[in-house]
Amino acid sequence: MRDVRKPVNQNSTRLIDRVRIFIRSRNLAFTTEKAYIYWIVRFIRFNHLRHPKEMTKIEVGNYLDYMAYSGNYSQSTQRLALNSLVFFYQQFLNVNLGNLHFSKVKREQKVPAVFSQGEATIILSLLTGKYALAAKLIYGSGLRISEVGTLRVKDIDFALNRIIVDLGKGNKDRLTLLPDLCIEPLKVQLAITKSLHQEDLANGFGEVYLPKGLTHSYLSTLLCNSPATEWM
What is the 3-state secondary structure (H, E, C) of the chain? Predict the structure, then answer.
């Protein structure tokens, strides 16, 4: 199921709501919004719910130090927390953090664990239904878990046996192969999805998330073509 941004009251005075509105005004990806909000909230809770305006780069550095010494965070996770807090302070609060002083998480040298073809085949044979389909897409198309979870009907091209990855890593689109073993299961899943969508429409629901500002674009077109606005 595709992640959908929940509406935010534009008049809300809650700090996190204001941050969400600000992030959306910058047209950042929803995954970025969720990550930034998550680390901002974690930072505030770490500092016993003190208001961020009462804290400086010292508290930010202390939190990043904690991440380095706790042993529970990776280098990439600490970097994400850093980016989130720098964005929050410098873009949203308009507070220049200057040079932050903190210890970095040490990079761990690990040999990547990769399934052999035989191992992958065994795992796929033990899965059923939508879970088997998701695993086959990950293995056969090279999709990430988040990309499988956000696939839409329009992203699947049966004519050319390919999948269009919309807003993948780095906020970029790309094309990838659609394996033959996924074609029939995908068609079955699409039929199930269509049936659920029709049921939702019958119950007054069925709205979908439109990316890349399409919601605003389509709404503007409807308003411009509406008889009630012909005098404008």
Answer: CCCCCCCCCCCCCCHHHHHHHHHHHCCCCHHHHHHHHHHHHHHHHHCCCCCHHHCCHHHHHHHHHHHHHHCCCCHHHHHHHHHHHHHHHHHHCCCCCCCCCCCCCCCCCCCCCCCCHHHHHHHHHHCCHHHHHHHHHHHHHCCCHHHHHCCCHHHEECCCCEEEECCCHHHCCEEEECCHHHHHHHHHHHHHHHHHHHHHHHCCCCCCCCCCCHHHHHHHHHHHHCHHHCCC
Task: Give pTM, 2 decimals.
Answer: 0.54
DSSP lists the bridge partners of residue 142 as none
Do 187 and 203 touch, CB atoms closer than 8 A? no
* Contact call for residues 84 and 39 (beta carbons, < 8 A): yes
Mean pLDDT of all residues in 207-232: 52
**Alpha-carbon separation of residue 6 from 3, 34, 103, 174, 203 (angstroms):** 9, 11, 36, 27, 20
Inter-helix orientation angle 75-86/30-46, to 10°: 90
Distance CA 158, CA 117 (A): 26
Residue that is written with structure tokens 């404008």 in the block: 232
Average pLDDT over residues 15-35: 94
The domains found in the chain, sorted by start residue, are 15-92 (1.10.150.130), 117-202 (1.10.443.10)
- pLDDT, mean of residues 54-71: 93
